[in-house]
Amino acid sequence: MTTVPADPYPYDFDLASTALLIIDMQRDFVEPGGFGETLGNDVSHLQAVIPPLAAVLARARAIGMPVIHTREGHVPDLSDCPPAKLNRGEPSLRIGAPGPKGRILVRGEYGHDIIDDLAPLPGELVVDKPGKGSFHGTNLGVELADLGVTSLVVTGVTTEVCVHTTVREANDRGYECLVLSDCVGSYFPEFQRVGLQMISAQGGIFGWVAPSSAFLAALPSPVDTAVPSPQEVPS
Ligand code: C5J
To answer: In order of start, what are the domains of the chain with their CATH numbers?
Structure first.
């Protein structure tokens, strides 16, 4: 077992059954000039997530922890978008409308894809999700079961929307979630603060919260976990 000092109490996890989940680090949410900024949001709060999350991603890859990326969006004919979601908001800013980086929240569009700094590597799972939660309408549960994953280290955006919905879904499904406080972001500082508190309150009602520094400090070094090359294996 590995232990991370966390709120509301230390988070214990088995490296062999843990995955890093990176939620919706998509250009349209995170980048200047994207859909999120068009809505009047200050994307600098989400940009701040990139460096610590890139460090966690690099470490996860180095120690062989499974990495799963998600993207919120819909098929081009929007047949997977319920009217209640489709008809919300100002018509020119609705899902499927032309946005600054392509059709808003439509799969295959430039703005829908993950930012270059956190681009998935070949072999990493990318889950396209039609909703806010990562389990709703996806095969994530099946994929996690196949991997034998029961603990999720949760990162991404936005804290109070897709991160929260996913953590709540995961908690109800029996996963133990550690949310990395500096690797999740909200356009609204107040929502960030309260959103994190809501996860760890009441004895960890949805999960645990810790900074990425605590998580990284708890991990073995890549040298300890690296698979030896044939030359290194003693004969
Ligand atoms: C939103 C998300 N905020 N990924 N999506 O609509 O949180």
So the answer is: 2-222 (3.40.50.850)
